[in-house]
Write a structure and sequence with these properties.
single chain; 13 helices; mainly alpha; about 475 residues; globular; two-stranded antiparallel ribbon
């Protein structure tokens, strides 16, 4: 009798999560249906389909993580279905964009993300079905969700192409970029799964995660201004940033928000400090304290995101480099918001590992299989990166009269290529396997993220049109 109760308990818990995820998705879709009355566009339009994709990607991510916690098989089956539906909606959104623009959706960062997320979802399904890496969606689906949220904050109207982009090579070059970057994202997820199977200590995952959090909030402190947080001004009516007489982006100061960023940064730094102190003193009790500090930091980050959204959304604050006041909106700070949300997702994945590591190890393929699949994925990504750079150089010569201009985007694309070339060289020539191969894959994707996002917004150059079309 007691055994029957024990066997029924997981089923009950499983039903509870399915009900919660199902109700959440149904509510979000119902609210979208209500909004259709005020939206003159077709139901299959880009914005509607992208919203549907976001809902199903988020539901899939929750179920993939639920599978990681419980091991209930039907979670991953339903997560796969949700990913497939999200991918279909993503496909319709991209097709509608293509139809409306009269060209493939590759001209700006918004359209590149649309294609990137589409490819990530497709490769997630391939890795899950073809290689039985069932839990890969717990990493790739949060990435897809953050990317779609980021897209919601970017100007999405169809604009005429600038002269440099009016070329067939645009379609070829950016298609190769999105395919290669998505393959790099999947190799990153596979490398993380390998490190779990290779028995990397949970404490090491913790310090790496906390270090990433420190990086996110330390970069935000660049905008610290007398206790306020300086963010970019943004005109909602014109869907554009505001510039001063010197053609600089106008920054506005949000009072007290800078102090909250500093507090979150300190909370993320504490687990890192405790980790190294525990290593030096060989005191395992400090690892427990570090885990508690990590949890507190994640909670504070959730508070930070909520406070940021409330204070920044459609508000007016004093301008720092212009006279008077200026408006701002979440659309003016897409990367700050995406960075914070990504940091929270990373923290939740760490907690999943902390609480259910033994179950995760049981659900994943063996380490050597994951190592091999990572190699195959990079084996696909690298030739695509090579062709991307080659076609970009040919196109640059046609557009600007030079094959290579050491533009920041070109330079960082070359750095990305060198990292993955180093991986393949070490693998083929020296037989590199295991953790060093995984570290290469992870570092490569970090460089991809900076090349894709960071260069566009932080380093001016010939590719600056990519941020806003």
């Amino acid at each position: 009798m007691s055994q029957a109760r024990v066997e029924r308990q997981p089923v009950s818990g499983g039903n509870m999560l399915l009900v919660m995820v199902g109700l959440g998705m149904a509510f979000l879709l119902f609210m979208a249906m209500l909004g259709l009355k005020t939206n003159p566009g077709p139901i299959y339009g880009e914005s509607n389909m992208l919203y549907v994709a976001l809902v199903f990607y988020a539901g899939a991510g929750a179920l993939y993580m639920g599978f990681g916690v419980t091991g209930i098989e039907r979670y991953v089956k339903l997560a796969s279905v949700a990913t497939s539906i999200g991918w279909i909606a993503n496909t319709v959104a991209a097709a509608h964009r293509w139809y409306e623009a009269g060209r493939p959706p590759f001209s700006n960062l918004y359209e590149m993300l649309l294609s990137f997320v589409w490819t990530v979802a497709l490769l997630t399904l391939i890795a899950e079905k073809g290689y039985k890496v069932k839990i890969i969606g717990s990493v790739t689906m949060p990435l897809a969700v953050v990317s779609v949220i980021l897209m919601q904050l970017m100007p999405s109207e169809v604009r005429p192409l600038v002269p440099a982009l009016q070329s067939t090579w645009l379609h070829v070059h950016v298609s190769l970029a999105m395919l290669s970057y998505a393959a790099c994202a999947v190799s990153f997820a596979l490398a993380m799964m390998f490190l779990i199977q290779d028995r990397m200590k949970t404490e090491t995952f913790q310090v790496l995660t906390a270090s990433g959090m420190v990086g996110v909030f330390a970069s935000m402190l660049i905008r610290f201004h007398s206790g306020a947080l300086a963010v970019t001004s943004y005109d909602i009516s014109r869907h554009s940033e505001i510039f001063n007489d010197q053609n600089e982006r106008v920054l506005v100061a949000i009072p007290d928000l800078g102090w909250l960023v500093l507090l979150v940064l300190i909370s993320a730094l504490i687990p890192v400090i405790l980790y190294f102190v525990a290593r030096v003193q060989k005191n395992d009790n400090l690892h427990d304290a570090s885990t508690k500090a990590m949890f507190v930091s994640i909670v504070l980050q959730v508070v930070m995101v909520a406070a940021f959204a409330v204070r920044v959304k459609n508000s007016i604050y004093p301008a720092l480099n212009a006279d008077g006041v200026a408006p701002t909106a979440l659309a003016g700070s897409p990367f700050i918001l995406a960075g914070m949300i990504g940091s929270i997702f990373a923290g939740l994945l760490y907690l999943l590992l902390l609480w259910r590591r033994s179950d995760l190890e049981r659900m994943l393929p063996p380490a050597d299989v994951l190592d091999g699949v990572t190699y195959k994925t990079i084996g696909v990504a690298f030739p695509l990166l090579t062709l991307m750079i080659a076609t970009g150089a040919y196109w640059a010569n046609q557009a600007w009269g030079s094959y290579w201009s050491w533009d920041p985007k070109e330079t960082w694309a070359a750095i990305t290529w060198l990292v993955y070339a180093g991986y393949l060289h070490a693998r083929i020539t020296h037989g590199m396997r295991g953790r060093w191969a995984a570290y290469f894959a992870i570092c490569g994707f970090v460089v991809v993220i900076f090349t894709f996002f960071g260069v566009t917004y932080l380093l001016p150059g010939l590719h600056a049109y990519g941020s806003n079309g």
